[in-house]
Amino acid sequence: MKKKRIYNTLIKNYIIFISSMLLICIVSFILLSVLMSKSVTEQKLPAITADAIVKGNYKDIDISDIRLLDGWVEILDENNRVIHTIGNKKTAAMVYQTADLINLFSYPDNHEYVYTGAAFTEPNSQKEYICLVALPQSKIDITMNIVNAPFELTKIYFGNMLKAAIFFLILFVLNIFLYSKWTARRISAPLTRITSSIQRMSDGDLSTRMDFKAENEFLQIRDAFNQMADNLQKAQQDNRRLEEERNRMFMDISHDLKTPITTIQGYALALKEGMVEQEEKKQRYLQTIFDKSVRVTNLINNVFDLAKLENTTPQFQIQNHDLAEFLRKMAAEFYEQIEQKGMVLDFNTTVNKLDVPFDMKEMERVIANLLSNSILYNQSGTTIKMSLFEQDDTAIIEIADNGTGIPDELKDIIFSPFVRGDASRSSEGGTGLGLAIAKKIVEGHGGRLELVNDKDEYKTVFRIFLVRGE
User: Which of 294-303, 349-358, 429-438, 453-462 reaches the highest mean pLDDT?
Assistant: First the structure.
C-alpha cells in the first residue's frame, strides 16, 4: 500500500477547499437567483412605458413611476395633435407628423428624450388616441436598463444582493474555519501521539510504542521511535542479564574460593595444633592443602585471563599452521587419559593437510578444554569424536561425545562464566570458566565456537569455525 505524504495530503485538502469555495459561490448565486425571481414575482415592475400605463380614460392614467424619472405623458388625437398632457412637458411640439413619430420611436442617440407609444380607444366616444410617454435619455439606456432609479424594485434588488453577499461571507468564513480545524487536526493528532509517547519514554517506560496511521513523514518518526524503543528495551534487558550474571559470577567465585580455602584453613589448623600425629595422615593433609591451593591459583588465573580477553584486545601470535597435524598431536596427547577412563577416541579428518592461521598455544587451550570436559563429565564407554573438514573458505573442527549430554537449561548459557555441566558446584569439576575463555579465544581469531543441538548420534557437539588464510 502506497504511503501518503504530507504534501499530497495538503494538495488534496487545498483541492477540497477550492471545491467547497466553488460550491459556496454556486449556492450563493442560486440563492440570489431565487430571491430575485421571488422579488420579480411578488413585486410589479415600474410602469414607465406607454403599454404599461395606457387605459381607456386617459385622464386617470397613473404616471407616478414616470414622474420619478422626470418624464411626462402626452395624449394625441387621430390628427397627432396633443390634446392632453400629464406631468411637466419639456418640449414645445404640440402636433406631430407621422414621420416625426416614427423618428421618435426609433430611439435615436441624438435625442434628449426616449419615447414609447401605445394606441387605445376611449370607451365613451370610441375615438382612437395615442398615448405618448417621454423619458430623459440620461435615465434610460438603449437596453432599457434602469439607472439610478429610486424604485422599490431597485431597493429589493440591492437588498437581495446584500443578502447573497452576507450568505456567501458566512459560508466563506465557516469554510475557512472548518478547513483550518481539519488540517490542523490531521497534523496535530499524530504530533500529540508522538509527544505523549516521548513523555512516557522519558518517564522510564521503555515498553512505550507508537501505533497510529498518518502521513509517511509521521510514520517514519513512528518507526524510528519504535526501533529506538526496541533497542533501549533490549539494552535494558541485556544490562539486567549482565548484572544478574555479574552477581552470579561473584557468588560463584565466592563459593569456588571459599570451599578450598576453608579446607586449607581446617587442615592447616589441624597440623598447627598437632591434632594429626600419624605421618601418613599428615602427608595426606599436606597434599590436600597443596591441591586446593593449586585449584585456587587456577581459578584466579582463569578469572584474570577472562578479564583480559573481555576488556582488552587479545595479543595472539597468529601464524599459518597445519591444522590437521595440530589436531593429530592433540588427540595423541589426550589418548592416554581417554583410554584410562575406558572411553573411545574416534579421530576423523577429510583432509591430510590444511593450513590455517592461528595461535597454536591459545588453540591448544581451546581444544584441551573441550576434550577435558568430555573426559571429566562422562562415564566409561563414552565415545569422543574429533573431526576436521572444510566448508568453502572455512575450516571446521568438531568435538563431540555420546555421553550424558548437557542439561537443556544450561545450553543457552553454557558459554557464560562459571557455568558447569554438573548441576552442583562440587570441587571435583573445573572452574566453570574454560568454555567462556575458549569462546573468547576463538572469537579473537575471527572465528566462532558453537554448541550444536541438532545431533542425534552425539548428545554434545561443539564446533569451531576458523577462516582459512589465503
Answer: 349-358
Domains in the chain: boundaries: 1-46+151-205, 72-144, 217-308, 316-467
Residue of 423, 433, 421 lying closest to 295 (CA atoms)? 433
DSSP letters spanning 443-465: HHTT-EEEEE---SS-SEEEEEE
| Residue pointed to by grid coordinates 552470579 | 248
Helix boundaries (H) for 413-452: 434-444
State the number of CA atoms in the 13 A half-sphere of 443 facing the CB.
Answer: 13
Q: What angle do CA 453, 457, 459 make, to 5 degrees?
A: 45
Give the pLDDT band of residue 44 (cuts 50, 70, 90): low
Query: Domain 316-467: which CATH class?
Result: alpha beta
pTM of the model as a whole: 0.48
Give pLDDT, residue 105. 80
Is 38's pLDDT higher than 90? no
**Residue 464: beta bridge partners?**
397, 449
Amino acid identity, residue 255? H
Architecture of domain 217-308: Orthogonal Bundle (1.10)
Residues in the chain: 470
Angle at 107 between CA 105 and CA 110, to 5 degrees: 125
pLDDT above 90 covers a percentage of the chain that reads: 16
Q: State whether the Cα torsion 365-370-371-372 is positive or negative.
A: positive
